[in-house]
Design a protein that fits this description.
Rossmann fold; globular; binds adenosine-5'-triphosphate; 273 residues; binds magnesium ion; 2 domains
């Protein structure tokens, strides 16, 4: 539990891939995040849970550098990345996916992976003009990698379809596939299973466990506590923009404040299956 959280010490930095301390963010005077403090253990799957409007997406926006916090600090590994731009944070190996998938509808599924943020020599004009061979080799390697990822996520057959033609579930898969194109070390997933059918929830859960087995650190926003119970090692509860508690889901079920804020229905329904 973290009632009065403290900043991370240097000893803890090996243990945590990502951490933040007292992040705050307001929109036109309304506090969306009002003291988010937590650590994300390396190589594990951490759930970020909390009621609608708790500030989860805003925290993901801040951690990925897509939004600036008003105050507070954040670290990736042992690097202070507070106020860094997203492309610089991505260079440290942190990528994120979006709650509302952001596929480019007019492009094919394969093209969506090829234009996903990553580090390509071809993005530098110098390389395009003076190292065309290297740029070409990278393009081929990227295409190869993209096809492998599409195959892993069951999207290979759809590689030439326009992204806008995919079903909601397929768009969720494409969103994750785009996120891992750059082989991140840390992946932030904002509701990767929202609105998908139970069979696909299980499949996506399996993919996330596979990413963990490959050594990736995952922070996922998730409302489905059955999923949290099945695949997450660690849980952060956010309520009204603040970290209410952290720990294992089983411990949080015994925390009266957490139950009141969020877990009530699940507790009264008994343990999740
Ligand atoms: N760009 C914005 N401008 C104004 N208010 C915003 C903006 N983004 C978020 N908010 C507000 O900040 C609060 C937190 O929103 P956020 O989207 O982070 O919550 P959330 O926990 O992700 O919710 P959900 O579970 O519904 O996705 C909400 O009150 C929301 O209306
Ligand atoms: Mg959200």
């Amino acid at each position: 539990m973290t009632d009065t959280p403290s900043p991370t010490t240097s000893d803890e930095r090996d243990e945590f891939a990502l951490s933040c301390h007292d992040l705050k963010k307001s929109f036109q005077g309304v506090m969306a995040v009002s003291g988010a403090t937590f650590e994300v253990p390396r190589g594990m799957i951490t759930a970020l849970i909390g009621p609608n409007g708790a500030g989860k997406t805003t925290v993901v926006n801040i951690l990925s550098g897509m939004m600036r916090s008003d105050s507070g600090r954040m670290m990736v590994d042992s690097t202070d990345v507070t106020n860094w731009e997203s492309y610089k944070i991505a260079r440290l190996g942190l990528m994120r996916t979006f709650q509302l998938s952001r596929e480019l509808g007019g492009l094919t599924v394969l093209e969506n992976l090829l234009v996903a943020p990553q580090h390509q020599s071809g993005e530098s004009l110098f390389n395009i003009f003076f190292r065309p061979g290297r740029t070409k080799r990278e393009e081929l390697a990227n295409a190869q990698r993209a096809l492998e990822i599409l195959n892993t996520y069951g999207l290979y057959e759809l590689r030439d379809s326009r992204a806008r033609e995919l079903s909601g579930g397929q768009k969720k898969l494409l969103e994750i596939a785009r996120g891992i194109m750059a082989a991140p070390k840390i992946l932030l997933l904002d509701e990767p299973m929202a609105g998908v059918n139970p069979a696909l929830i299980d499949r996506i859960g399996g993919y996330i466990l596979d990413l963990k087995a490959q050594g990736m650190t995952i922070l996922m926003v998730e409302h489905n506590l059955n999923v949290v119970e099945k695949i997450c090692d660690h849980v952060i509860v956010l309520a009204e923009g603040r970290t209410l508690a952290t720990g294992r889901l089983s411990d949080l079920r015994a925390n009266a404040e957490v139950v009141q804020a969020y877990l009530g229905e699940v507790i009264s329904a008994g343990p999740a299956h």
